[in-house]
């Protein structure tokens, strides 16, 4: 018995974005990562093109989230308040290929930290890992 998989095609595609810049490009990252370009839903290789592989990104915080899950705190408790060290752990121990820095502390009701303080947090993360941010 043959089973025909229904396919949903699209004329559009996701815009490609390159994240990071190497020293040759005027940046500080060890490599760049290009995402996007797909013409189908993630992992639906039978429906369209996926010119770039999926990548693992992990998130670090400028301020400890109030509702951070205990199940994750087990892995990050000693670095959760240090964005640079948390980023390093994400890359070195857990294989993150990208780091997202959540600057939640800049929100007026969640810390209201200044733009200068937020910039220092980003600089700390940039100095701790070489993957794209």
TrEMBL record:
Pfam families: CdhD (PF03599)
GO annotation, biological process: pteridine-containing compound metabolic process
Domain Pterin-binding residues, every copy: 55-133
Name this protein carries in UniProt: Pterin-binding domain-containing protein
Organism: marine sediment metagenome
Taxonomic lineage: unclassified sequences, metagenomes, ecological metagenomes
């Amino acid at each position: 018995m043959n089973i025909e998989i229904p396919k949903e095609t699209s004329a559009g595609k996701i815009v490609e974005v390159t994240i990071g810049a190497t020293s040759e490009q005027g940046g500080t990252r060890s490599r760049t990562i290009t995402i996007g370009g797909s013409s189908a839903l993630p992992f639906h290789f039978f429906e369209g093109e996926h010119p770039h592989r999926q990548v693992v990104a992990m998130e670090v915080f400028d301020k400890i989230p109030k509702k951070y899950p205990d199940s994750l705190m087990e892995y990050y408790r000693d670095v959760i308040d240090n964005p640079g060290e948390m980023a390093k752990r994400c890359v070195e121990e857990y294989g993150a290929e990208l780091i997202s820095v959540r600057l939640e502390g800049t929100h007026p009701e969640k810390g209201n930290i200044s733009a200068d303080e937020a910039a220092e947090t980003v600089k700390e993360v940039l100095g701790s890992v070489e993957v794209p941010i």
